[in-house]
Amino acid sequence: MVAAPVLWSTAGVVTRHIERATPFEQVFWRSLFAALFVAAALCLLTKRNPWSALSAAGWPGLLSGTLWGVMFTAFMLALSLTTTANTLVVMSISPLLTVLLARLVLSDPVPMRTWLAAAAAGAGIAWMFGAGLSRRTRAT
What we know:
The protein is mainly alpha-helical. It contains 6 helices and no strands. It has helices at 3-16, 23-46, 50-81, 84-91, 94-104, 112-139.
């Protein structure tokens, strides 16, 4: 649980230090190593062929993998087209969207503490963007 946020938050710094690879080359190599890692993890966890483990996932697994690939590519392109801070702030909106979609699409009851955490995160994101906008208006 600690490794994933640390690796995601350092991705921008590492990406900025890569001088010769295009964003799509970076996506290719990241995806290749991610696929090898997932295949190894499936072999270890299921004690069987990774293809049979993947086929057991069915259409939901295929859709999830496709969306993960789109997200992976969009993340690397965003890092190359804007600042790392902007990319990570926009990415941090996903928990807020998850809360809203869980309520709207799934009619899942959302506890008050989750609404409060989502509101606090939304206020923090608005504050960060607001500070950036006020700096730009002062500079012009």
